[in-house]
Each structure stands twice: as C-alpha cells, then as structure tokens.
C-alpha cells in the first residue's frame, strides 16, 4: 500500500490509524493513501487496532456465587441483561469469567481473580467477596466496579441499590396502616446488602415513632429451623402484627417466614402482615405478590457499565452510584386486626 501511494509505511499507519498524534499530513497525501486502501480492498483489523491502543474493548464479568444464571428467573439474569445492553451501546464486548462455577477453581482459589486482567476492566457480582485478592487489584489500579454497595476496599467503585431508603419506605407504609410492632427476619451474615436493609428498617421505625425493643431484628443462620410456627405464634401473641424478611440469593428468610405463618394457621393479611425487602424466589412466584420493593437489577447493571467505561476513559476513582428501588404495593399487608377490648373492671363487692 505504501508503494502504491508513494509514501512511507509510517505515513500509511498515521492515516489509517486516524493520526491521533496530530502530525501534519498534506490533504493530497492523505487522499493517496485512502485511494490505495480502497484499491487494495483494505479492511482495518479490529484486533490489531485494539492491541495498538493497549485495549481489547472487552469488559469482564466475574461472579462470586456458585454459578452464572442459566434461567431467566435467576436473580442475576436481569443484571446481565442491563450489562449486555449498555456494553453493546458503548461498543464493548463481554467476557464471562466462570471459574467460580461448579467444577471451576473457585473465586477464592489463589490467582482466580487475577484472570480478570485479560479484560480492560471487570464487573463483579456477589454478596461475599474474597477481600485480599480484591484489595490487590484495586491497589494496582485495575478498573473494577462491584454491583452492590461496598465500603471495602477503599477505592473500589460500585453501583448499588438504595436498600436503606427502600426498606424505610416499607416500614413507613406498615406504620401508616396502623402497625405498631414490626419485626425483621434476616440471615446471619455481614453482607453489605443485609446491613443496609437493617439500617433502613430501623430508620423507618424511628421515623414512624415506633419502638425497637430487643428482638426487633432477628438474625438467624438457620431460618428453616429457627423460624417455625411455634416461634411465630409466640411473637404474634406478644403483639407483633407485621413481619418483614430480607431478600437473599437463597430466599431462606422469606421461605421460613411464610412457612411459619402457614404452620401457625394465621391468615395473610387478615391476621398478620408480611413484607419482603426485595423480590420473592422464582419458585414462589405463583404465591400472592408480597408487599415490598423491586430491585432495579437491569438499571444497576447498566449503571455499573457506565461507571466502568468512565474509569477506562479517564481513570477517575472512586465512583459510586445508588439506584432507587420501586415500592411494590403487593397484597400481603393490611391494617392490623382490632384486638378484642378487655372487659370492664367489675365493681367492688358491697
């Protein structure tokens, strides 16, 4: 091509590469190079152009859970929809790192997380993240965005749902219906999402002027064993008229709570109200729609891609974004039943 255009190979590279260096090239020279390219049927090699720019135009997606979603009902499916759509709109391809899938090396294995360096940057999904490998990547300046709010390590970008505000809104809705004793059931872990929901739940009680005595938040490592019919009847007898559960990957807290209510023979919402801080497990989708909120998973995925591509463009960090959750009215809450008034005191005997 250089011979046909009568110019040097360097000039050909400058013209076809867009002359990002800003070197002065005569218009006639540029036209000769482009005409030679058309004559020879030249088509730019995208891989070569990416290598020259030290970029692959690849965004990684790494999950810390056991598997990537294989069904649309999986809670991560909507995340990936948002990620794919926004990545395509911004001209990036995706590569899924599946080492933590069944039979893989596992996310916590030595060097497992380092594989993401094959991409220009990476999106991370999962409640429980190995801290030290993640801290090393952040310290090295590798572009990362976690889906979900994280306080550690310092400098990690994230896109999260505003669980605290959404949880407070659910509690305030219950208070507005007349509930005065509300209890939260959550799994016993230190995930940031669980902590945010609990904080919002307690903030909602405080905003409504409701008490939060000991036992208002129940943390359980074995919801199915500890939240049973006898437990629920005892709490109901103490005056608890509304029970709230957090959403997790397993849905164990919600499963246990609904099973306990059924086992106790209480009607929902006539005798007891139930609310869910998130969406129900897919296998319970046929049950009455729970009052609570919907997590904007697709928008969170798209927001995470925007943060990551901004990091790649200017290296700015840290970046955080909270996405608003939409309140879901559902059909599992109602005003608390009116308890029978105690009989009037008997007059003293003459």
Automatic annotation (TrEMBL):
It comes from the Bacteria. Keywords: DNA-binding, Repressor, Transcription, Transcription regulation. Residues 1-53 form the HTH lacI-type domain. GO terms for molecular function: DNA-binding transcription factor activity; transcription cis-regulatory region binding. It holds the Pfam family LacI. Residues 334-350 have a biased composition (Pro residues). CDD domains: HTH_LacI (cd01392), PBP1_LacI_sugar_binding-like (cd06267). Coiled coil: none annotated. Residues 327-350 are annotated as: Disordered. This is LacI family transcriptional regulator. It comes from Streptomyces hainanensis.
């Amino acid at each position: 091509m250089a011979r046909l255009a009568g110019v040097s190979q360097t000039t050909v590279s400058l013209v076809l590469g867009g002359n990002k260096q800003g070197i002065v090239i005569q218009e006639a020279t540029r036209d000769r190079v482009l005409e030679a390219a058309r004559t020879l049927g030249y088509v730019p090699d995208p891989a070569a152009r990416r290598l020259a720019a030290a970029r692959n135009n690849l965004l990684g997606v790494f999950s810390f859970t056991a598997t990537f979603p294989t069904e649309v009902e999986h809670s991560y499916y909507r995340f990936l929809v948002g990620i794919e759509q926004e990545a395509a709109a911004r001209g990036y391809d995706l590569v899924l790192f599946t080492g933590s899938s069944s039979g893989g090396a596992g996310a916590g294995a030595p060097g497992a997380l380092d594989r993401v360096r094959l991409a220009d940057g990476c999106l991370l999904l999962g409640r429980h993240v190995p801290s030290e490998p993640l801290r090393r990547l952040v310290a090295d300046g590798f572009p990362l965005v976690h889906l979900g709010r994280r306080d550690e390590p310092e400098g990690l970008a994230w896109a999260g749902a505003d669980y605290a505000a959404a949880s407070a809104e659910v509690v305030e809705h219950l208070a507005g219906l007349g509930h005065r004793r509300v209890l939260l059931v959550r799994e016993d872990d230190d995930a940031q999402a669980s902590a945010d929901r609990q904080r919002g739940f307690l903030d909602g009680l405080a905003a409504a002027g409701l008490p939060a005595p000991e036992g208002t938040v129940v943390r359980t490592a074995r919801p199915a064993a500890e939240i049973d019919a006898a437990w629920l009847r005892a709490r109901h007898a103490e005056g608890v008229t509304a029970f709230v559960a957090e959403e997790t990957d397993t849905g164990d807290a919600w499963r246990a709570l609904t099973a306990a209510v059924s086992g106790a023979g209480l009607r929902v919402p006539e005798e007891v109200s139930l609310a869910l801080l998130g969406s129900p497990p897919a296998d319970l989708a046929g049950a009455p729609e729970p009052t609570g909120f919907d997590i904007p998973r697709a928008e969170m995925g798209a927001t995470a891609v925007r943060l990551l591509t901004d990091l790649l463009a200017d290296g700015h960090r840290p970046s955080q974004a909270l996405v608003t959750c939409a309140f879901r009215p559902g059909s599992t809450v109602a005003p608390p039943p009116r308890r029978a008034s105690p009989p009037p005191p008997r007059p003293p005997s003459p």
